[in-house]
What we know:
The protein is of the alpha/beta class.
Amino acid sequence: MNVVPKKSLGQNFLIDEKILNLIVSLGNINSNDIVLEVGPGTGNLTEKILKKKPKKFIVVEKDANLSMNLKKKFNKDIIVINDDILNYNQSFLYKKKIIIFGNLPYNISTQILISWIKINNLNNFCKKFILMFQKEVADRILAEFNSKKYGRISIISSWKMEIEKIIDIDPNSFFPHPKIKSTLLVFKPKNKFYKINNPKNLEHVTNIFFNQRRKMIKKPMQFLFKNYEEVAKELSLDLTLRPQNLSNLTYYKICSYYEKLFKKT
């Protein structure tokens, strides 16, 4: 198949047989599973997933030409949706948990991940996500507090997900070769996680803190709370700390306080 990858869509097609086989094995797919693949491209992974004979197999491909090629190649063995996954997340809320695979476009990978995390009852919807990211992005997702790479995506990802790093992948495993390494991660939705009423509030709170990550947290606390000193005392916060010095749990607690403001107004 003669396909010219589009830079505008962040297309880098995985061609490494060993990595493709590894990804499929992580899914533990059986004949009762529903599988969703995001950005199948030329169908290299799609072909291997099909061999596991899932009950239902849906692929979402934004590129119209690739979508047409996939329909021709696999005929009725898969359901091809030619659209942006960001438009279709809520369409995959099956009663049965699904397995999601994705070699996510570098330019919108975190946006896609966060859109999934924001889905209500995620643990009832998805068994696991097997996703590939630019290594730099994966490092930020996995980062612990008190580290330079720790930030918004670290906090939001770990809120509802257990995350495991599988392997770093060299550029020569793709066509065309990206300039940087990629990383394969497995996400499993948590059954129990900190209660936050609206995920958008967690996005807002972390955005306020990490917009000025080198500043002391006194400034974002003042922005969020009129009684910021009282809130800081309640949470045992040292206002001279920097945003990266606060744990995930601390941010979830700050978000809860922020949500209480709306109930009072």
